[in-house]
Specification:
Elements (H helix, E strand, L loop, with lengths): L17 E18 L1 H7 L6 E2 L3 E3 L2 E8 L11 E8 L7 E10 L5 E8 L3 E3 L3 E9 H6 L7 E18 L13 H11 L5 E5 L2 E5 L1 H7 L1 H8 L9 E2 L1
Parallel strand pairs: 11-13
Antiparallel strand pairs: 1-10, 2-4, 3-4, 4-5, 5-9, 6-7, 6-8, 6-10, 11-12
Pathway: Protein modification; protein ubiquitination
Protein name: BTB domain-containing protein
Protein backbone atom coordinates (compact mmCIF):
# COMPACT_ATOMS: atom_id res chain seq x y z
CA UNK A 1 0.00 0.00 0.00
CA UNK A 2 1.44 3.33 -1.00
CA UNK A 3 2.41 5.75 1.75
CA UNK A 4 0.14 8.80 2.14
CA UNK A 5 1.42 11.97 0.52
CA UNK A 6 0.91 15.38 2.07
CA UNK A 7 0.98 18.66 0.20
CA UNK A 8 0.82 22.36 1.01
CA UNK A 9 -2.47 23.75 -0.24
CA UNK A 10 -3.15 27.34 -1.17
CA UNK A 11 -5.07 27.89 2.05
CA UNK A 12 -2.14 26.90 4.30
CA UNK A 13 0.32 29.49 5.59
CA UNK A 14 4.08 29.27 5.96
CA UNK A 15 4.86 31.00 9.27
CA UNK A 16 8.37 32.20 10.13
CA UNK A 17 9.50 32.83 13.71
CA UNK A 18 12.86 34.05 14.98
CA UNK A 19 14.94 34.02 18.14
CA UNK A 20 18.54 34.76 19.13
CA UNK A 21 21.18 33.48 21.54
CA UNK A 22 22.80 36.60 22.99
CA UNK A 23 26.17 36.59 24.75
CA UNK A 24 28.05 39.54 26.16
CA UNK A 25 29.56 41.26 29.20
CA UNK A 26 28.16 43.90 31.53
CA UNK A 27 30.84 45.64 33.59
CA UNK A 28 30.73 48.07 36.49
CA UNK A 29 32.58 48.78 39.73
CA UNK A 30 32.01 49.78 43.34
CA UNK A 31 34.40 51.76 45.56
CA UNK A 32 34.55 50.84 49.23
CA UNK A 33 36.24 53.40 51.49
CA UNK A 34 37.58 52.11 54.81
CA UNK A 35 37.73 55.08 57.17
CA UNK A 36 39.07 54.49 60.66
CA UNK A 37 40.97 51.35 59.75
CA UNK A 38 42.61 50.96 63.17
CA UNK A 39 39.21 51.14 64.89
CA UNK A 40 37.77 48.43 62.62
CA UNK A 41 40.56 46.13 63.82
CA UNK A 42 39.58 46.78 67.43
CA UNK A 43 35.84 46.32 66.96
CA UNK A 44 35.83 43.40 64.52
CA UNK A 45 37.73 40.32 65.74
CA UNK A 46 38.73 37.49 63.44
CA UNK A 47 35.94 35.98 61.28
CA UNK A 48 33.77 39.07 61.89
CA UNK A 49 32.95 41.52 59.14
CA UNK A 50 31.25 44.79 58.32
CA UNK A 51 28.89 44.97 55.33
CA UNK A 52 28.98 47.77 52.81
CA UNK A 53 25.81 49.54 51.80
CA UNK A 54 23.91 47.62 49.15
CA UNK A 55 24.41 48.75 45.59
CA UNK A 56 22.54 47.93 42.41
CA UNK A 57 24.28 46.55 39.34
CA UNK A 58 22.92 44.51 36.46
CA UNK A 59 19.41 44.79 37.85
CA UNK A 60 20.40 43.10 41.13
CA UNK A 61 21.51 44.12 44.61
CA UNK A 62 25.01 43.38 45.87
CA UNK A 63 27.10 44.15 48.93
CA UNK A 64 30.71 43.67 50.05
CA UNK A 65 31.86 42.15 53.32
CA UNK A 66 35.06 43.57 54.82
CA UNK A 67 37.00 41.41 57.31
CA UNK A 68 39.85 43.46 58.86
CA UNK A 69 41.22 40.34 60.62
CA UNK A 70 40.43 37.70 58.02
CA UNK A 71 37.46 35.42 57.51
CA UNK A 72 39.52 32.49 58.86
CA UNK A 73 41.60 31.83 61.95
CA UNK A 74 45.10 30.43 61.85
CA UNK A 75 47.59 31.19 59.10
CA UNK A 76 45.20 33.58 57.35
CA UNK A 77 44.62 35.80 60.39
CA UNK A 78 47.25 38.33 59.31
CA UNK A 79 45.27 39.24 56.19
CA UNK A 80 42.34 41.46 55.31
CA UNK A 81 39.60 39.44 53.61
CA UNK A 82 37.06 40.79 51.15
CA UNK A 83 33.94 39.03 49.81
CA UNK A 84 31.16 39.91 47.40
CA UNK A 85 27.59 38.83 48.15
CA UNK A 86 24.54 38.79 45.91
CA UNK A 87 21.31 39.54 47.76
CA UNK A 88 19.06 36.48 47.78
CA UNK A 89 15.69 36.26 46.07
CA UNK A 90 16.73 36.12 42.42
CA UNK A 91 15.14 33.68 40.01
CA UNK A 92 18.37 32.35 38.53
CA UNK A 93 22.10 32.50 39.32
CA UNK A 94 24.35 35.19 37.92
CA UNK A 95 27.67 34.26 36.34
CA UNK A 96 30.27 36.90 37.11
CA UNK A 97 34.00 37.60 37.23
CA UNK A 98 35.19 39.93 40.00
CA UNK A 99 38.42 41.91 40.28
CA UNK A 100 39.45 43.31 43.68
CA UNK A 101 42.01 46.13 43.75
CA UNK A 102 43.72 48.14 46.46
CA UNK A 103 43.86 51.78 45.35
CA UNK A 104 46.77 54.14 45.94
CA UNK A 105 46.33 57.74 47.07
CA UNK A 106 45.87 58.82 43.44
CA UNK A 107 42.96 56.42 43.05
CA UNK A 108 44.92 54.01 40.85
CA UNK A 109 45.04 50.22 41.41
CA UNK A 110 48.22 49.00 43.11
CA UNK A 111 49.70 46.46 40.61
CA UNK A 112 50.70 43.98 43.32
CA UNK A 113 47.15 43.93 44.70
CA UNK A 114 44.92 43.43 41.67
CA UNK A 115 43.31 40.00 41.94
CA UNK A 116 40.72 38.56 39.55
CA UNK A 117 38.54 35.58 40.36
CA UNK A 118 37.30 32.93 37.98
CA UNK A 119 33.75 32.79 36.68
CA UNK A 120 31.45 32.04 39.60
CA UNK A 121 27.71 31.50 39.84
CA UNK A 122 26.28 33.95 42.35
CA UNK A 123 23.02 32.70 43.81
CA UNK A 124 23.08 31.98 47.52
CA UNK A 125 26.86 31.60 47.45
CA UNK A 126 29.43 34.31 48.00
CA UNK A 127 32.96 34.51 46.67
CA UNK A 128 36.00 36.56 47.53
CA UNK A 129 39.57 36.61 48.78
CA UNK A 130 40.57 35.48 52.25
CA UNK A 131 44.14 36.71 51.65
CA UNK A 132 43.53 40.02 49.91
CA UNK A 133 45.95 42.33 51.73
CA UNK A 134 48.43 41.48 54.43
CA UNK A 135 47.85 44.01 57.21
CA UNK A 136 51.58 44.54 57.77
CA UNK A 137 52.03 45.48 54.10
CA UNK A 138 49.13 47.93 54.18
CA UNK A 139 50.15 49.60 57.42
CA UNK A 140 53.72 50.21 56.20
CA UNK A 141 52.68 51.43 52.75
CA UNK A 142 51.70 54.85 51.45
CA UNK A 143 48.33 53.48 50.34
CA UNK A 144 46.77 54.16 53.73
CA UNK A 145 46.62 57.79 54.84
CA UNK A 146 44.89 59.33 57.84
CA UNK A 147 43.75 55.81 58.79
CA UNK A 148 41.88 55.52 55.49
CA UNK A 149 42.21 53.41 52.32
CA UNK A 150 40.00 52.34 49.40
CA UNK A 151 39.16 49.00 47.79
CA UNK A 152 37.75 48.80 44.28
CA UNK A 153 35.48 45.93 43.23
CA UNK A 154 34.97 45.44 39.47
CA UNK A 155 32.12 43.14 38.48
CA UNK A 156 31.71 41.64 35.01
CA UNK A 157 28.43 39.79 34.52
CA UNK A 158 28.55 37.12 31.83
CA UNK A 159 25.36 37.29 29.83
CA UNK A 160 24.13 34.26 27.92
CA UNK A 161 20.43 33.99 27.18
CA UNK A 162 17.87 33.40 24.49
CA UNK A 163 15.71 36.27 23.28
CA UNK A 164 12.74 36.60 20.98
CA UNK A 165 13.20 38.38 17.67
CA UNK A 166 10.78 39.73 15.11
CA UNK A 167 10.92 37.62 11.98
CA UNK A 168 11.61 39.43 8.73
CA UNK A 169 8.68 39.31 6.29
CA UNK A 170 8.90 36.50 3.79
CA UNK A 171 10.05 37.53 0.33
CA UNK A 172 7.32 37.81 -2.27
CA UNK A 173 7.85 37.01 -5.95
CA UNK A 174 6.71 40.06 -7.90
CA UNK A 175 5.16 39.17 -11.25
CA UNK A 176 6.55 40.83 -14.39
CA UNK A 177 5.07 44.21 -15.19
CA UNK A 178 2.09 44.23 -17.57
CA UNK A 179 1.57 48.00 -17.42
CA UNK A 180 1.78 48.29 -21.21
CA UNK A 181 -1.14 45.88 -21.54
CA UNK A 182 -3.26 47.85 -19.08
CA UNK A 183 -2.53 51.13 -20.87
CA UNK A 184 -3.35 49.51 -24.18
CA UNK A 185 -6.72 48.37 -22.84
CA UNK A 186 -7.51 51.93 -21.75
CA UNK A 187 -6.79 53.25 -25.23
CA UNK A 188 -8.96 50.57 -26.85
CA UNK A 189 -11.94 50.71 -24.48
CA UNK A 190 -11.77 54.50 -23.90
CA UNK A 191 -12.80 53.80 -20.31
CA UNK A 192 -12.22 56.87 -18.14
CA UNK A 193 -11.47 59.10 -21.16
CA UNK A 194 -11.91 62.74 -20.14
CA UNK A 195 -10.78 64.80 -23.14
CA UNK A 196 -11.94 64.85 -26.80
CA UNK A 197 -9.96 65.81 -29.91
CA UNK A 198 -11.64 67.16 -33.07
CA UNK A 199 -9.58 66.32 -36.16
CA UNK A 200 -11.10 67.15 -39.61
CA UNK A 201 -14.59 66.73 -38.22
CA UNK A 202 -13.88 63.43 -36.46
CA UNK A 203 -13.83 63.06 -32.64
CA UNK A 204 -11.21 61.10 -30.70
CA UNK A 205 -11.53 60.48 -26.95
CA UNK A 206 -8.40 60.29 -24.80
CA UNK A 207 -7.06 60.43 -21.23
CA UNK A 208 -5.59 63.75 -20.16
CA UNK A 209 -3.15 62.19 -17.65
CA UNK A 210 -1.61 59.99 -20.34
CA UNK A 211 -1.43 62.89 -22.79
CA UNK A 212 0.22 65.13 -20.19
CA UNK A 213 2.78 62.47 -19.32
CA UNK A 214 3.72 62.10 -22.98
CA UNK A 215 3.84 65.75 -24.05
CA UNK A 216 4.80 68.96 -22.20
CA UNK A 217 2.59 70.89 -24.63
CA UNK A 218 -0.47 68.84 -23.69
CA UNK A 219 0.52 69.10 -20.02
CA UNK A 220 0.50 72.89 -20.21
CA UNK A 221 -2.75 72.91 -22.15
CA UNK A 222 -4.60 70.41 -19.97
CA UNK A 223 -3.23 71.21 -16.48
CA UNK A 224 -1.94 74.76 -16.86
CA UNK A 225 -3.53 78.02 -15.74
CA UNK A 226 -5.62 78.29 -18.94
CA UNK A 227 -7.71 75.14 -18.43
CA UNK A 228 -11.44 75.96 -18.17
CA UNK A 229 -13.23 72.77 -17.18
CA UNK A 230 -12.71 69.06 -16.63
CA UNK A 231 -13.97 68.08 -20.10
CA UNK A 232 -12.90 70.09 -23.13
CA UNK A 233 -12.39 69.72 -26.83
CA UNK A 234 -9.06 70.25 -28.55
CA UNK A 235 -8.67 70.92 -32.27
Amino acid sequence: MAAPVSSLTASEECITTRSAIVAGNLTGHHLLDIEGYSVTKELLPCVNCMDSRRFKFGGRLWYICYYPKSIFNGVHADFISIYLFLVEGIDKPVKAVVTYSLLDQAGKPVPSHIITTGVYKYYTQYFGLHQFIKREFLEKSDHIKNDRFTIRCDITIKKLEAEERTALPASVDVPPSDLHQHLGNLLVTKEGADVTFQVTGESFRAHRNILASRSPVFKAELFGAMRERAMRRLS
